[in-house]
Structures are given as structure tokens and as C-alpha cells.
Amino acid sequence: MGSSAAVQHVKVAVVGSGFGGLGAAVRLREEGVTDFVVLERAGSVGGTWRDNSYPGCACDVPSHLYSFSFAPNPDWPRTFSGQPEIRAYLERIVERFQLGAHLRFNHTVKGARWDNATARWEIDTDQGRYSAQVLVSATGPLSDPSIPDIPGLAEFPGEIFHSARWNHDYDLSGKRVAVIGTGASAIQIVPAIQPQVGKLVLFQRTPPWVMNRMDRDITSAERFVYRHLPATQRALRGALWLIREYQVGAFVKRPGLLRAPEALALANLRRAVKDPALRAKLTPDYRFGCKRVLLSNAYYPALAQPNAEVVGGLREVRGNTLVSADGSEHEVDAVVLSTGFHVTDLPVAEHITGAAGTTLAEEWTEGMEALRGTTVRGFPNLVLVIGPNTGLGNSSMVLMIESQLNYLADYLRKLDASGAAALDVTASAQRRWNDDVQRRMARTVWKTGGCRSWYLDAEGNNTVLWPGTTGHFRRETRQVDLHEYDLIHAPVTAPVPA
Fold first, then answer.
1. How far apart are CA 18 and CA 16, in angstroms?
2. What is the crossing angle of helices 19-30 and 397-418, to 10°?
3. pTM of whole model > 0.85?
4. Taking burial as the number of CB atoms within 10 A of a residue's CB, which of 62, 97, 104, 491 is the most buried?
5. CA-CA distance, 465 to 375, in Å (whole number)?
6. What is the DSSP string of 381-405?
7. Neighbours of 287 (CB within 10 A)
8. Residue 352: which H helix or E strand, with range?
9. CB-based burial of residue 280 (10 Å sphere; 0-12 exposed, 13-18 middle, 19+ buried)?
10. DSSP assignment, residue 347?
């Protein structure tokens, strides 16, 4: 890696400054660890809430649950917050917990390699080199856009961009616009742009299940109460959490219980869409919950407007003409790709090299797996935030992040107390954990619901979601069990970092 003078030595290096990275930074300071950096490839914090600034972008988890328990926000303006408010919240976290000195902006991590000789992570960024005892990867699964491999798409002569890379300089007014995909971003983008475009063509492979979004302004009186009586906000958060915990059973153990919300969703569709042909196109043919259930009051009404059309998935692009799977042709001026992210093939995994000289991506060729979604065999002192099988289908990811931060904190305590330079997961512990996760996954709606979702990898395994409650995961990550780890001691000849 070059001369040691060119390398900055730290105890912990965190990659990413979204909820996971900033949460890790706060927790490190709480644990008395101040010798750390947060490496961020962009010029500001926010993660996916910085990158996704498309029209209508908002969270589908209630505001008071989609925030850190240690940093409640009494001033959320709506029950479901928009992207600008969430990004501003994360920026306030930096100020409130004095994280600025630890942030390293415009630092793209080009590679991180475990050095067996020094028992440290050697990290190469485009702005300098770092050496860390512990590497925390908090890049998140919604960070690298997935671009579909469609014949002719790369040669489209008009304007084209992904929903997470929105071109705000391009005026959609009066334009013929194609939206590709029907996931969480598409159902927000469609109603936001439909009134201004000349023509909107939605290319849909499979229709989503859509429920009413119970969104409203939070009154100034409510905010006053939350500000001056914090216990009321904690009680609301607790109630929102409990409701979602009780829903988990239907998704993971008794999918038959999902027939009731399925009926509500179909009634919602019948109310909003009177045209039977369009309604048939928008009716899912798989079990409710198999794909992520989406929330919107405006999606169906927007698609029922005269300037909107729903066609099959995108098959081919010929110049300005887009050809759908049903053979219909549509000439457009602009294409919006609402095609999701690299989730089961995390790009960061290609840049992390473990003790055996293989990358995390190579270790995961048959599917992602980690002990407690957090640590991986052969990658000592690597801690993942939002790792394999930690995703949720119905609740707040911040709850899972905080559980993993508990595990990170205890990991550092146990590491220091052990006198070892590093901890490495045993193969048996990782195998036992993941066998249990996949065994429990087999009966869930995500495996039995009859759909193909982004939760599933190329082998058909769900390596994304957690098949249980957030409370269960919190119990499983409360502390590190050293019986699940091998202790690695640095050789006596290893240089002591300055």
C-alpha cells in the first residue's frame, strides 16, 4: 500500500454516511471510541435519502418509527415524511452528535484488504489510504442503481436516467415519458409527474399490491405536545412498532392470514380504476406480501387519466421507440428507470478482500450469508450494517440498524477485553445461523407467494429479508458470543501503527 507515512491509522473505519454509517458514528462516540473516520463517496451525508430526490420521494414507514430511538424528532411535518425532511434529519444528527470531524467526503473506497501480517484492514480511497483495526461497511443495499440489460437501451437518443440519479435540469412538461418498473419509487414518481407530462407510458412486468397511504399533516399542536412531553412521542413510536410486530406472523408463518388485507387492496383498486381492462392489468396474480406491499392514494388515479397508459415490461428499444413485452410500440422523449438496486449482489462486496485473498463477492457466489447478518467467516473484524437477511418487508430498517449497532458496540468491547487483534467467525457458527434462517424462510410468503421479487437471489434464495420480528433480531444481536469466533493474535513482528 505504499509507505506507512502515507497511511492514516485509525481504530475503526466506517464506509457510508446514511442511517447505518451515522448511527455507527454516534454509537462509537458513546462507547468512548473517537479514533475513527466515516468514508463517504459523495459530498454530503444522507445515503439513499441524499441520492433519491425524485418527484414525490417519501418514506413508506411512519416518521416517528423511521428515526433513531436516541434522537427523536418532535417536528416531523407529516405522518409519512418526504425525502427532504429525512435528509435534513440526518444532517442534524451530524451537528447534534458532533460527527463533522470524523467525516471524510468524496472518499470513494476503491478497495479494502485484510492484511494477515498486521491483522488490520488496509483501505484504499481515491483521496488517500487508511489502516483500521475494524472495518464497518454501512453502504446499504439501496445505494447502487440496477440498470436493466435491454437491447438498444444504451443507444436511446432521448433523455434517460435512473430514479436515484434524477436529472432535475430536464423539464418533463409536455414530454412523452416512459417509466420502467412498478416498485416503490415508480408508484411515487407516476402520480408526481403525470399531471405535467404530455404522455406517460408505464412499462410493467408485474403489478404491485397497493394499499391506501394513511398520510396527513401533523398539526402544530401535536408537535408542541411531542416537544414538551417526550413520553407521548415514545408512546406513539411504541404503538407503531407493536402494530408492525404483530403483522410479522402473517408474512413469515401464516400467509393465509394475508387474504384480509388482500381484499382491502382489491377494493381500493376497484374504487380508483373503473375501466375493467386497466383494472385487470393492475391486478396482481400472486399472494399479497410476496413482493413489497406499496402505499399510495394517488398511483391508481394517475394511471386512470387519459394521458397515462400501462403496457407490458420493456423488451427492446429501437431509437426513440420502446417495444413492450406485449409487442406494442411507444415513441417517447424520455425514459425514467425505476428499476431498483443491486441488493443480492452488493457492489461493495467486490472491493472487500478477506484473509484468504478472495473478495466478499467471490465468497458469496452461491448467495450472501453472515453470522447474525453482521460478520462473515474469513473477513476478520469486518462488521456489516444491513448485511444479509436483515431487511424488512413491513417495518423500519432503523430498528434493525440499531440492533446491529448494539452488536458492534459489544464486538468492540469483547475484542478489547480478549487481548486479540481480531475476531473471525467460525465456519460452524455461520453455517448454523444461516441454515436456521433459510429453514424459517421456507414457509414465508416471500418463498411461497408465487412471485419473483428482488428479495430473491439468482438461486431463488431469500438472502435479503429477516424471517422474524425486530424484537427477535434485537435479542439475537444483544451481545457477541465469543464461542462463535476464533481469536486472531497479531504476530509480535507486526509494526505498531503510529
1. 6
2. 40
3. yes
4. 62
5. 16
6. TEEESS-TT-B-SSS-HHHHHHHHH
7. 19
8. strand 352-353
9. exposed
10. G
